[in-house]
C-alpha cells in the first residue's frame, strides 16, 4: 500500500514548478520561490514519478490530442567555439575593419 502523504498547499503552483524544472533543465535547488520550497516540490515529483503518475499523465495527453507517441526534448546546452557566434563578413567588410585575408 502506498503512503498517501500530504497534499501540496497549492497544486497549481507545485505542478507549474515541476514543469518549470522539466522545461528549463535547471537543478531543483534553482526553482524560483514563487513555486514553493524546492525540496517540497521535488518530493512531490519524486513520489508521483514512483507511482507512475507522470507516465500516465503523458499517455493521457497523447491520447487526448490523438497522437500515437510523445517526444521529449533535451534542454542541455552545447558549447560552441567563440568564433562560431560571429556572422560571416564579406571581403569588403573585412577590409573596412582592417582584417587581412593574406598571410
Description:
- It is a single chain.
- The protein is mostly helical.
- Helix content is 45%, strand content 0%.
- The protein contains four helices and no strands.
- The mean pLDDT is 76.
The ordered H/E elements are HHHH
In DSSP terms (H or I, runs of 4 or more residues), the helix count works out at 4
From the N-terminal CA to the C-terminal CA, the straight-line distance is 75 Å
Mean pLDDT: 76
Write down how many β-strands occur, each being a DSSP E stretch of 2 or more residues.
Answer: 0
Q: What overall geometry do the principal axes of the alpha carbons give?
A: elongated
Q: What is the structural class? A: mainly alpha
The helix fraction, in percent, is 40-55%
Rg (C-alpha, Å): 23 Å
Low-confidence stretches: none
Strand coverage percent: under 5%
SSE inventory with pairings:
Layout: H1 11-24, H2 38-50, H3 53-64, H4 91-97
Characteristic terms for this protein:
45% helix; mainly alpha; 103 residues
